[in-house]
């Protein structure tokens, strides 16, 4: 029973009083903190000591709670209960570094579920900024020291648009262990593994190198343990950067189209203008229209001149391609100045040294897999948008050497 209950029982039975103390019971209320008003033995004259500020007892060293128990049998039982409560939800026993679940700790699928299964959190890699075609994602390994043993991580990615039923189109599934680490995946996807600030913590990463520009993508991730259980899903939805545009070439095409439209336009010139505008990408066509209207709108804007020179049918085939450009990229493509640049970014490329036998996925622990990693480089082209042609100003000031 609790000690306070024991004292209350003695007081009730009148076995403990001011004048009659039982051997082995000693109460010192005046040493640390204020004597509580409910303490019968502390209300002796001269024994009360007021201390409005609580005093923290000194801690010499930290030990597990069960080590304070002297009886070996009780100590082992207490240790087992604490381990079970912390690692196995109190529904199983800790055996070495795993949980042996009780017979009542099974889910609807018949799989043991006493050991909690943490959810992996998928996120954008802070070291690789997404571009129009490249995205890098990462997550921290969720395998605890005791209990759940992660066998694999399953990635799903799909392009989302307004014309596709996202429930019917499931996208592509990739097994981190079987597809990516084994090298069976495509050259467009690479797997990596690094360590965080704590060496025991693994960070897994996947880099996608062949995405479509200005595309909305949905990525999901879940973990699989050695018993076949699935963790909760983690989702990242993002839009890739706008397509690359050669602004100088777009301006040259705009000048070419104006020259073809100017004056009498022969059938050959009409066909040349039509072929030129159909060969460029939708984003480039948007930029051509921007330059044409910026320089030659006083002679008629791009839409009107195209319909007048090429006819409504051909003009419609050209202009409807502008609808493929998102509103976000449309606003950027109206910038006064666009500059292209190429960055080289390092990433880890890892391969497994082991061949996992087919049908044995659930019995292999991913953290124990021998993996060889090497650093590689990926080139990422980007556009920079601005309102002027990148004027840089250097301000000099006199600084005292002292």
How would you portray this structure in words?
- By secondary structure, this protein is of the alpha+beta class.
- Among the domains are: 123-242 and 345-380, Immunoglobulin-like (Sandwich); 247-325, Annexin V, domain 1.
- Helices cover 24% and strands 23% of the residues.
- It is built from 9 helices and 12 strands.
- It has helices at residues 3-12, 72-87, 176-180, 247-261, 267-279, 282-296, 302-310, 312-319, 327-332; strands at 92-95, 98-101, 123-124, 135-140, 150-160, 172-175, 189-195, 202-208, 216-225, 234-239, 337-352, 371-386.
- It has a 4-stranded antiparallel sheet with strand order 3-4-8-7, with no helix packed on it.
- A hairpin with an 8-residue loop joins strand 9 (216-225) and strand 10.
- The relative contact order is 0.10.
- Mean pLDDT is 81; it is low at 390-402.
């Amino acid at each position: 029973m609790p000690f306070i209950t024991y004292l209350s029982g003695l007081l009730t039975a009148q076995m403990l009083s001011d004048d009659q103390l039982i051997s082995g019971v000693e109460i010192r209320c005046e040493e640390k903190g204020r004597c509580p008003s409910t303490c019968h033995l502390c209300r002796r004259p001269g024994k009360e000591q007021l201390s409005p500020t609580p005093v923290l007892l000194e801690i010499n060293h930290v030990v597990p709670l069960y080590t304070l128990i002297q009886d070996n049998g009780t100590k082992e039982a207490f240790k087992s209960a604490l381990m079970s409560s912390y690692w196995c939800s109190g529904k199983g026993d800790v055996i070495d570094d795993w949980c042996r679940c009780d017979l009542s700790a099974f889910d609807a699928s018949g799989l043991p579920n006493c050991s909690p299964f943490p959810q992996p959190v998928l996120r954008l890699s802070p070291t690789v900024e997404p571009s129009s075609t490249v995205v890098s994602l990462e997550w921290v390994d969720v395998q605890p020291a005791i209990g759940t043993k992660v066998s694999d991580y399953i990635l799903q990615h799909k392009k989302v648009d307004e014309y596709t039923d996202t429930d019917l189109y499931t996208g592509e599934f990739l097994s981190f262990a079987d597809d990516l680490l084994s090298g069976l995946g495509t050259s467009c996807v690479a797997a990596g593994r690094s360590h965080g600030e704590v060496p025991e913590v693994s960070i897994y990463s996947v880099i996608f190198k062949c995405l479509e520009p200005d595309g909305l993508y949905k990525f999901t991730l879940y973990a699989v343990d050695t018993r076949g259980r699935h963790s909760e899903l983690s989702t990242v939805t993002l839009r890739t950067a706008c397509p690359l545009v050669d602004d100088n070439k777009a301006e040259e095409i705009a000048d070419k189209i104006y020259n073809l439209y100017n004056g009498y336009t022969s059938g050959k010139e009409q066909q040349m203008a039509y072929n030129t505008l159909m060969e460029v990408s939708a984003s480039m066509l948007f930029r051509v229209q921007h330059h044409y209207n910026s320089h030659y709108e006083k002679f008629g804007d791009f839409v009107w001149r195209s319909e007048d020179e090429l006819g409504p049918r051909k003009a419609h085939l050209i202009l409807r391609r502008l609808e493929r450009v998102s509103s976000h990229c449309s606003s950027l493509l109206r910038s006064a100045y666009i500059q292209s640049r190429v960055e080289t970014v390092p990433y880890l490329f890892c391969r497994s040294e082991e061949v996992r036998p087919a049908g044995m996925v659930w019995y292999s622990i991913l953290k124990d897999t021998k993996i060889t990693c090497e650093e590689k480089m990926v080139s990422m082209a980007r556009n920079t948008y601005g309102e002027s042609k990148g004027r840089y100003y250097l301000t000099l000031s006199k600084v005292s050497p002292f």
